Amino acid sequence: MHIGDGLLDLTILIPLWIVVFAYGAYSLMKMRNSLKGELTPIASVLTAAVFAFQMLNFPIAAGTSGHFLGFMLLAILISPSAAFWMMTVVLCIQAFIFADGGILALGANIFNMSIATLPGYFFYWIIRKRMVKPLNNEKSLSKSEVHSTSLKQDDSNNYQDRGLLIGAFVGAYFSITFASLICGLEIGFSSSFPYPISLTVPLMLGYHALIGIGEALITTFVVVFFKKYAPEYIPDIQKIPIWS
Amino acid sequence: MKREYKIALILFGGSMIILGAFLWMPLYLAGPDGLERVLFNLTNNEEYEPSSEVDYTAAPFPDYSFRIGENTYIHTWLIGLIGAVIVGAVMFGIFKLLKIRQIKRDNQLVITTE
To answer: What is the signed CA dihedral for A22, A115, B22, A40, rounded to 10 degrees?
Structure first.
């Protein structure tokens, strides 16, 4: 979904650059407060892994390929504000070193892949938050029943795990769908590309509805890996505000 | 070795193995992605490129390939490795810089309070 130079006109590019700078400053403040020192090597390698996974083009339909985006994975495992900067670094290196995506269009690409994807994180956050609630209720009930406490705790943990995985899958799927919707709107409104949004948006959504499945599967796979081998690095949703 | 470095190493090694395996497998497709397909379909041109004044050939590895010689899957994997190392190193540097600045700021706050 890397937009090249020449596809979007300046009336679209300039506002997107402004939004990216403003959100970048905001997320830098948020990230500075939330990032723990021990997360540095994992967060750096996760960014590198997202870069590598973005190179994997998997077939979807009729000779078309899709590739991983990665924002949701970074947002789930670190935080959305840190994920913004991690994606920005990936996109800058792709544009300047690999000529993947335009340099003038970099603001639009950062916006599409790091800001337009945020609704996906909201879905994830809401699903996890809702799946945590029964644990609290059961905890208060189980105080009177000592024998059944551990069993209920196990059930609650399974319920929470399911919340994490369902949230990751749904969030990742919708993150790419929203990004493609915004991208469709941008190229549809651009005077440099003579096709209206009535054509660009449905086509973008159609292809990315399929690519989203790949995105969701890869994100869930990596989250499962962390859940199994390094669960302490998955942030507790109860402690994370949605605007973190 | 600290646990976080161990996990980071496993994650990096794992992603490089997956990248190598995927590039080698017939599943790998270097065809147009979703956005490119939309542009090709609408313009009825399978090689549509928006006109731009930016010189793409100036990039060190344009389109994930070496400038000299034939590029096989092993070359693409090597470029992936180079890119991943650069991305990881830049991100590590940014995080470290932020941490150093935060520690300095916290120390200043302590001195001021005392």
So the answer is: 50
Region for residue A22 given its phi and psi (left: phi exceeds 0; alpha: psi -120 to 50; beta: otherwise): alpha
CB A166 within 8 A of CB A127: yes
- Predicted pLDDT of residue A233: 86
Q: Which of residues 45-104 of B touch A (CB under 8 A)?
A: 49-54, 56-57, 59-64, 76, 79-80, 83-92, 94-96, 98-99, 101-102
Best of B63, B64, B91 to mutate (most A CBs within 10 Å, chain A)? B91
Q: How far is A12 from chain B (nearest CA, A)?
A: 16
Q: Please report, as a single letter, which amino acid is at residue B60.
A: P
Q: How far apart are CA A67 and CA A213, in angstroms?
A: 11
Phi, psi of A49 (to 5 degrees): -65, -40
A191 burial (CB, 10 Å; 0-12 / 13-18 / 19+) is: exposed
pLDDT digits (tens, 9 = 90+) for A8-56: 999 999 999 999 999 999 998 888 776 777 888 999 999 999 999 999 8
DSSP classification of residue B33:
B
The pLDDT tens digits for A86-120 are: 999 999 999 999 988 889 999 999 999 999 999 99
Give this prediction's pTM. Answer: 0.88
